[in-house]
């Protein structure tokens, strides 16, 4: 008799475990840690150092969200995901958000049941070749072997590009950026293709970056951004507006250097609302009043993060280009904080 | 103390379900069945619930959509305009192809090594022991990666075969002007015919009638040859002297084939370096060779142990009897020991074949596009149909395994001890 009661409880517990699901915000707060899906290792975007501390452009976004939600940018558990595992990791709940160079596409937003919270890097797919191959244009790649990360949008773009240009190629599928690098350096492929920013980051890690060139052709639009699960709008709002807060902070001149000063109150009502001096923007989405202050303090505003991780003064050396503020001729544009 | 059979009949009481040995096992079985079915039902229900929460449906319609990606290795024609179903088929054929070749080479390696490990030659036996112990005690994934690394690192890039205008020489040269080892693939000559008998267009792949004709002629030749050998055996049984047949066999096997090939205008096309890669021949990718070698060598080590066990299971008296009849050691092994050992060898051999087939799903590690790479990799990723793709993949692997064990069980039935 005792046994059957035990089994009954077990089954009941299993059943409730299957259905019980709080909102992501509650889950994260209860856990005290943000699970953030990142790249398995792409210098500049997300890579661990010798001590296992993650840093990079995408990592900075994880930190900003953790700071906004939990008040501490270090309370992030980084979950490395490959091109193949990333979306399953998100939809299955293994990670709370994905900040992993993922392209915002229609089918991913709808059919894969994810929500993209914005764009943190406007990118496009490019090719890298060895300089001594003498190739100067992607149009000369007819018949080439091309290394490509499997499970990415680049795979489809590549097929479309070669088809529309009446060229043939041999795809060499690789599972991660590291494997792609190794195959490319070993000469198993003539060209390596992925997002141009990823190519720049990959090349920066080589011993001889000057011997490799990135071809001028950009064959696709790759708006990269953080993604969350479909159906939890509150959590989507938090990630989206944390990103916007970083972008707006750059626009208004709020930096990690002057934020303590500005958080005491300024003449500019926009900054006051952003930093929670005025109004109740934070509580509207379930956060503290000073959420944006914490988010910006985590790694600086969007421009500071860019400059520190992938900007022109870093080995990766990416120019702002499309990713400049709209006031500077770029596409970075945050809606009003009001 | 009364036994269960002569218990007085006092009607059925519920407690008998547990305390009566006549019912106890039935009770336990029924409870177990209910628990197992309950667990399965809960899993299915949980899946349906979670799919509903995610707003996903369960259908296989995605298989009819355009795949849109390219596959490097294919046995049937495929372009990125074909459907996901076709891409799955391409992957499935790649899986079957590498498994078939792997099973064949693993068996050859296994028998060879297994026999040699029992050799009286100290060095040969020890060498085989070293082979078996190293290969079966390191994970097969590592062997596949090692094979791939070796192939990639020791071979030159295709452009090394290009003649350098400054020196007038290429840094690598092709073997016999027809085979080139590169760090991507091995370029070998391909076969073509000047005259074609026509092509049958099946839904799966176009089948050349030339190939069909060659297969038919070969099959016919083999059948005629078997008749010839049977006749020779009959003559031997009747007269005690076996007629010389080797030149007749050779003529029967090769003659018609040579005539047919000449009539069809058989040609070999050597690969030539054009642009980045070799074209004109057949490029056997390193990924395939690495996977094939890794799987064969690994499984071969296990099969060697099975063969050794099988041989040791045959009593020493059989060998001594064969020697007493004047058979040499080689013939003793081939005619007396191995046929009997097969009865012991075949059942565990089946599971090794199954293992090899399932291990072939490690192909993704070297970029060989098998079923796991197409259906379970790119298709799954691009369509987001994890559940459908994985279920389908499991079903297909299950079907392949059942077919292999079915065929091997037939063979086992044939070689097992006949009890009359």
From TrEMBL, chain A:
Stretches assigned to the Solute-binding protein family 3/N-terminal domain: 33-262
Signal peptide: 1-22
Keywords from the UniProt entry: Signal, Transport
Keyword check for Signal: yes
Gene Ontology biological process terms in this record: amino acid transport
Family listed: Belongs to the bacterial solute-binding protein 3 family.
Protein name: Amino acid ABC transporter substrate-binding protein
Organism listed in the record: Paenirhodobacter hankyongi
Automatic annotation (TrEMBL), chain B:
Recorded superkingdom: Bacteria
Keywords of the record: Amino-acid transport, Cell membrane, Membrane, Transmembrane, Transmembrane helix, Transport
One of the Pfam families matching this protein, by short name: BPD_transp_1
GO CC annotation: ATP-binding cassette (ABC) transporter complex
GO biological process per UniProt: amino acid transport
Gene Ontology molecular function terms on file: transmembrane transporter activity
UniProt subcellular location: Cell inner membrane; Cell membrane
InterPro entries: AA_ABC_transptr_permease_3TM, ArtM/GltK/GlnP/TcyL/YhdX-like, MetI-like, MetI-like_sf
TM spans (from-to): 23-44, 96-118, 130-151, 203-224, 245-268, 288-314, 389-411
UniProt family annotation: Belongs to the binding-protein-dependent transport system permease family. HisMQ subfamily.
Entry protein name: ABC transporter permease subunit
